[in-house]
Amino acid sequence: MFDGRFEIVSNRKIAKNTFEMVLSGDTEGIRPGQFVNLKLEGFYLRRPISVCDFAPGRLTLVYKVVGHGTACMAELAPGAVIDTLTGLGNGYDTAPSGDKPLLIGGGAGVPPLYALAKALLAEGKKPAVILGFNARDEVFYEEEFKSLGMEVYVTTADGSYGIKGFVTDAMDRPYTYFYACGPEPMLRAVYAKTVTSGQFSLEERMGCGFGACMGCTCKTKTGHKRVCKDGPVFMKEELPW
Amino acid sequence: MVNTSVTLSGLTLTNPVIPASGTFGYGVEFAENYDINCLGSFSFKGTTREPRFGNEPPRIAETASGMLNAVGLQNPGIDKVISEELPKLRKIFHKPVVANISGFSIDEYAECCERIDREEGVGLIEVNISCPNVHNGGMSFGTDPKSAAEVTRAVKAVTTKPVYMKLSPNVTDIAAIARACEDAGADGISLINTLMGMRIDLKRRAPVIRNVTGGLSGPAVFPVALRMVWQVYEAVKVPIIGMGGVSTAEDVIEMMLAGAAAVEVGAANLVDPLASKKIVEELPEVMERLHIENLTDIIGGAHHG
User: Fold this and answer.
1) At A39, is the secondary structure helix, strand, or coil?
2) Please, what are the domains in chain B?
3) Residue B270: which of A43, A213, A217 has the nearest Cβ?
4) What would the pLDDT profile of A52-77 be if each residue is shown by its tens digit?
5) Which range marks the domain in which residue A109 is found?
């Protein structure tokens, strides 16, 4: 964990209720699949947000407005400075992915797959990604993933864009391994359908975000695990689904 | 040079700052960020006889200037705490630690306290009779003077180290419960645990926390905690560890003026992992500014006549 100050470079709407915030600050030690915890003015607890992309000195977060905290985040202007804990959570393990891992993201679960895709590509692997949304106006980052030079499949539940249905309706293709992030019902559907091993990124309401308060504990086959510290990424084999 | 040291029932602490149980785990997460030996002590995660998962999630909610938690005493159980957590703890913390013990029966309290009492590195036992998030245990012992006294007697009969009873603010008369504990042999009183509260999700029209209610902590509860420390100070002669929303060195001084001999810092650790360290560092400066030479001189200093 690192305690740093990040300055907002840009903060723009990219889809319905969805914003992309680019910040400058020390990103050393950040890994794909980790999250940061933001201290926003006027709120007692921090806001945990998954890391979408990072480079030296530059951090990109894509977040959905779901409550007062994220609504205030969306109002923040370039130049504002945010007290930010970084390097939180375990992150994805790219070692077991094989040649052709499948990345499966639903809604606000899409962002962390972007940094993961870049890491897998840098290792010479050929990942494909399924991006699941409710409707056309919620779709984001399709072009960003495409410009990495990978196969991208978009699903919408109402059929207004891409493949009609859920992410599981786009999974009938060969893959060596999978990485999934999204709401729990989606993750459970992926778990039921997938034939390979893989990793799930879980979400839970957190107090501290660094393993102290035990607020976000979940049950796994290997005991009680803190989503913030022992996760948020769990192996398929660990989950008691 | 100001003197920040304080004494709790013969146990001298270099300063009065003690991270509160449930906000500091068994110390490991914080030791990754700073040398926790700068602290007066710390109170480890409430430990019970059996391992516990606690309540189903969600078990955290935010409030104005504070938070609710309904963790429900998640802990690995006394066996693992003794065999795994304490050996790890001794490597990172070289001062006497406060052992926080909870239970669901008088026998369980006595058994766990007797076992932890024998452990090297345990300086003081804090008996949690005030957890608002478990049923048929915890707080039910701390909301009635008679049962609070019963737990106190049972624990005192099997321990040699100072025993501090941690009280609930969810009572009509906190002074009566503190007196009952003192009369039953308690070496000191710890207060306050969290205040019962709840939030409702407007979209779902259902409680945010699965357990429905949770314990309120953070700056929002500080004035309530301060008032209760004040009342207990007037009711008992034994030392008091004051806590509830303490976030700054000034809050520490205020708690001590109300009657606390030492002070625990809780929720602040969860928002700023360096909070307790910062309070320790700021304390001498604040003392100088307020012309306090010896911190012990100000305990109960706001009570006149």
Assistant:
1) strand
2) 6-51+76-196+216-298 (3.20.20.70)
3) A213
4) 999 999 999 999 999 999 999 999 99
5) 95-194
In this complex, which of B45, B67, B273 lies closest to A1 when CB atoms are compared? B273
Distance from CA of A63 to the nearest CA of B (A): 19
**Nearest CA distance, B215 vs chain A (angstrom):** 12
A215:B22 CB<8 A? no
pLDDT at B270: 97
Q: Strand B240-243 vs strand B188-191: parallel, antiparallel, or unpaired?
A: parallel
Interface confidence, given as ipTM, is 0.93
- Pairwise CA distance, residues A215 & A206, whole Å: 6
Last residue in a domain, options A88, A103, A130: A88
Asked whether A34 and A49 are in contact (CB, 8 A), the reply is no
Instruction: Tell me whether residues A44 and B269 touch, CB distance under 8 A.
Output: no
Q: Look at the block and give the residue holding tokens 């207004």.
A: A160
Segment B96-103 mean pLDDT: 97
Does any CB of chain B come closer than 8 Å to the CB of residue A159?
A: no
Would you name the residues of B annotated as active-site residues? 131
DSSP code, position B52: B
Lookup: tokens for B125: 């036992």
Q: Is the pLDDT of residue A32 over 70?
A: yes
pTM for the model: 0.95
Nearest-Å Rg of the Cα atoms of chain B is 18
Q: Residue A21's domain is classified under what CATH number? A: 2.40.30.10
Instruction: Answer whether the bond into residue B207 is a cis peptide, omega within 30°.
Output: no
